[in-house]
Design brief:
Blueprint (H helix, E strand, L loop, with lengths): L21 H7 L3 H15 L6 H9 L3 H15 L4 E4 L12 E5 L2 E10 L4 H17 L7 E10 L7 H18 L6 E2 L5 E6 L3 E9 L8 E3 L5 E2 L3 H12 L9 E7 L3 E2 L2 H9 L2 E3 L11 E3 L6 E2 L2 E2 L6 E5 L11 E5 L16 E2 L4 E2 L4 H5 L19
Parallel strand pairs: 3-10, 4-8, 9-11, 10-16
Antiparallel strand pairs: 1-2, 2-3, 4-7, 5-6, 6-7, 12-13, 14-15, 16-17, 18-19
Helix pairs in contact: 3-4, 5-6, 7-8
Length: 385
Amino acid sequence: MEKLFDDKIRNDDRYSGHLEKSYDFYDTTAKPEFVAIRDMLNDWFSRYPETDKRQLKRDFYSHQFDSAFFELFIHELFYQQGFSLTPHPTLPNSTKNPDFLARKGDFEIYLEAKVATDKSNDQRTLENKRGAIYDELQKLVSVNYLVEIEDIVFKSDKQAKLSKLRKYFQKWLDACHASQHPQYNDYDEHGDECFSYDDEDIKISLRAHAGIIMDDHPIASYLGGSFCGGCEEALAGAIREKGAKYGQLDRPYIVCVNMIGVRHPRTDEIYNTLLGLRRHFTDTHNYQNAPFSIEMDGVLKNPTGPIFTQVSAFFITQVFPSNLHAAKHWLIEHPATKNKIDLGKLDLTNHNESSVRTKKSIKEILYPYTARPQSDVARKDDRSF
């Protein structure tokens, strides 16, 4: 039987590099928290239809890890609700194929999985340039000092001279150890001391803090972070791409969107994106009981009326291999769908325009008896989580 990750001896106990492919890291790591994730993915993969395993595995180890993971996740999520799933079913009115036809008794639905990100191509390019610098600085040898990255300023489109950078900062760390005190040559924008490298292409500023180096991992903090809100454009784009892709359908259709950017989706912005901005009839800030109107600026509405009415519902989440025990979801019925669906036949908590039917979370469906281990809560390739 084909496995997603083959059985072999693994001795690699390092953390992932920032530019390392996710599949390669999970396939080689021996760190227990990530071995648990690999075993989980292999378990899910064992239930995926045999005829399509090879293609899904190819997607995993190519540059489509996030999309392949989300497809496997959707398969497992509905499998654990009692559905049998057929990948890429034939449609009556289209030559295109959705990701799954899910069946449970006489209840059948089409499922489409889409990964959405709030990162532009320029942002991805910048992340890759930063990632190369992070991986090079991680090679620094330090005994008593943890390194904090204060700032990275790119002055040109050229990549930094990585080995030159590392040698420069290694000499600085050696001086810090020799003097038993951090040595600085610059000040950051807040007036705090730092040690900087500066040339025509880049400026990098670091600080050193006394501490214990774990796993030969001297970098204590990176730039960036995560944010709440700001996912509207990415969500709207995913719905526009998938909402009318298959024309008129003979079964209910759920568009599933995984918001994998640095911004965390919020309930208010999801409803605003789908249904339109809620504007309150009040000049005060006490909105709790104030009447409101819904503008015709949601992705499901325009001035001529509802659109994407072939979609029955939307499943929206932000899920990674490491956060399944805590991942939130929104299962929202299209209020004007022409393709009605009985969401009561799903085990997931779901919503319509006026109410919430509380049922089960992602964790309760995937892990009904035991909680997900907490040791793998940090996403291995994004340390802001």
